[in-house]
Amino acid sequence: MKISVCSARPILVPCSLEGFDYQVDPYVGCAHFCRYCYVLDQAETDWTEEILIHADLSSQLSDELEGLEPQTIYMGYLSDPYQPCEAELRQTRTVLEILLARGFSVSILTKSDLVLRDSDILQKMVSASVSVSVAFNDDRIRQLFEANTIETESRIGALRKLKEAGIGTSALVCPVMPNITDPMPLIDALAPHTDAIWVYALSVQGQSPRCWSNVREILSRHFPDIKSDTESAVQDSDHPYWSGLRRDLQEVKRSMGLDLRIHV
Ligand code: SF4
After folding, report:
1. What domains can be seen in the chain, in order of their start residue?
2. Which helix (H) or strand (E) covers residue 141, if one does?
3. Does the pLDDT value for residue 205 go beyond 90?
4. Measuring from atom 6 of ligand 1, which residue has the nearest CA?
5. Which of 25, 78, 159, 208 has a 20 to 30 A CA-CA distance from 254?
6. Å from CA of 255 to ligand 1 middle
7. Considering Cα of 45, then 26, then 209, then 171, what sign does the dihedral take?
8. What are the φ and ψ backbone dihedral angles of 96, each rounded to 5 degrees?
9. Which residues contact 239 (CB under 8 A, 6 or more apart)?
């Protein structure tokens, strides 16, 4: 993977997610290479070949935080802060050190267990939290859609260790791929290690045409028998697949007493 340096780009940027004023993405691009990734059309480089890092992360971020009240910063919106190159480059750890020194906290979304490396910093922050997303029960299928991520089981193991370390945890079952993702076993496995679970459908409305064409290509090649029904469900939120799933999820939420947020 080629790592190039970008400059003259803000590191701390406004965040559109409810509850957060700012987000930080230590990397531009993401080598997890999820085929359904909605950020793909904003990519400046081919993420399979090249990832960008900020020229002087430390001093630039320190300058940008100047005068800001301590608050929780979101990390993981446009790229995964714990994608493979973080093990060596430690850009995310640098961001966490800077934020901790100024009394800030973070809410992190990742698909990697590398986040465990930074538990020591997260434990010192006020109410830091980590969310892990999972979408596939079968490891062979996961590799079709998310070539460079780690297996689902390891992500759930990371949540368990984070929770044991006293760090706030939550999970996303996302994206639910109709007829492929089986959300119930994932929820069962996640529930003991999370404070809340969000379930999101694969959504292509208003998203990158590139991510949808990538998914369709995988469906054609590997799931010809269910391709047509899966495509219909993805395009129609009233499809019987979703109404059945909504009913099942409501029942699980009630019977297990889970904080389950249903967005399918
Ligand atoms: S981990 Fe997130 S940002 Fe990275 S490729 Fe996958 S969906 Fe995109």
Report:
1. 2-263 (3.20.20)
2. helix 139-145
3. no
4. 34
5. 159
6. 32
7. positive
8. -60, -40
9. 178, 232, 233
